[in-house]
Amino acid sequence: MSSTLVVHHLRVSQSESIVWLCEELGIDYKLVCHDRDQQTLLAPDAYKELSPLKTAPVIEDVDTYTPNHDHIRLAESQACIEWICRKHGQGRLLNKPWDSNWKEWLFW
């Protein structure tokens, strides 16, 4: 079964944690790597078009929770982490506010 999850990885960025998360969960995903400009170290224009924030990380997926199975695109680390853990990881690696290390988990 092929995954619907696509991780857009901008090298040397916060998207490192999303790739790491997917590997820790052992889930299937498609990795699309984007290289920074060698001179400016900025993200390429194609990457910036993925998110209105023009930041990393960005993931794309099919929202199987909606009747039409809408295509979604998420930016921001915490949103991506929550989505991946809940949808693809069956809640694994998520902490609750009452867990003793919740604050550290949020910082990660």
From TrEMBL:
Domain GST N-terminal: 2-92
Superkingdom classification of source: Eukaryota
Record-linked InterPro entries: Glutathione_S-Trfase_N, Thioredoxin-like_sf
Family the entry assigns: Belongs to the GST superfamily.
Name of the molecule in the record: GST N-terminal domain-containing protein
